[in-house]
Structure formats: C-alpha cells, structure tokens
Amino acid sequence: QVHLEESGGGSVQAGGSLRLSCAVSGYIVGRDAMGWFRQYAGKEREGVAAIDSDGRTYYADSVRGRFIISGDSAKNTLSLQLNNLQPEDTAMYYCAAVSWVASAWALASGSYNAWGQGTQVTVSS
What we know:
Elements: E1 3-7, E2 10-13, E3 18-25, E4 33-39, E5 46-51, E6 57-59, E7 67-72, E8 77-82, E9 91-98, E10 114-115, E11 119-124
Parallel strand pairs: 2-11
Antiparallel strand pairs: 1-3, 3-8, 4-5, 4-9, 5-6, 7-8, 9-10, 9-11
C-alpha cells in the first residue's frame, strides 16, 4: 500500500534550518525516484529537489546550495535539509514518489503519482 507522510515542518527565523522527513511505504528509497515540492498559497506546486533511480540529485535554482535531498534506505525515509531559510521559502512542502523519472522531468510535479499530505514551513524575517 502506497503511503507517504511528511514531518519536520515548523516556524523559524530567517537564516535558520529545518529538516523535513518523509516516511515512505509502497515505494523503495534508493530504488525509485522521489522528490520534494512546495506550494505557495494560490500557486501551483513547484519542484524543489529530487533524486532519481540512479541516485542523481536535482535542485531548483532558488534552493541550490541551501537545500539537500537525501534518502535512508534502511528506514525507507526521504529527507530534505533546509538551510539558510528565507521568508520566500514559506510554503507547504510535499514529498512525492514514482517508479522512474526522466532527468528532464525530475522536478515536474506531473511526473509523480504518489504524494504525501504536506508539512508547513514558515520563515519569518
């Protein structure tokens, strides 16, 4: 049974850090492709970071150098380390999974067919 559940969101001041986790069932961390997305109020979901079936990582330009995606195959958990957070990072964050994704589409929400419920990240200035 497929189930993804995010945790770790919260409120921090600008410059702070958070670590998001996604407990995964129905997909295999380290084998399947997975990603993190965020959604601003009234906006479409956008890709933040992804890791494909070969372990290659992808980042949106806005987060490259600040966010790090990783997976723990022993716990079947996907993580996203968020560093140097800024007010514009305030959004609902979702994890997603799919068996395989092409590199060109790794950060496209339409490439994924399993989603968690999201966890809120709020950054104050």
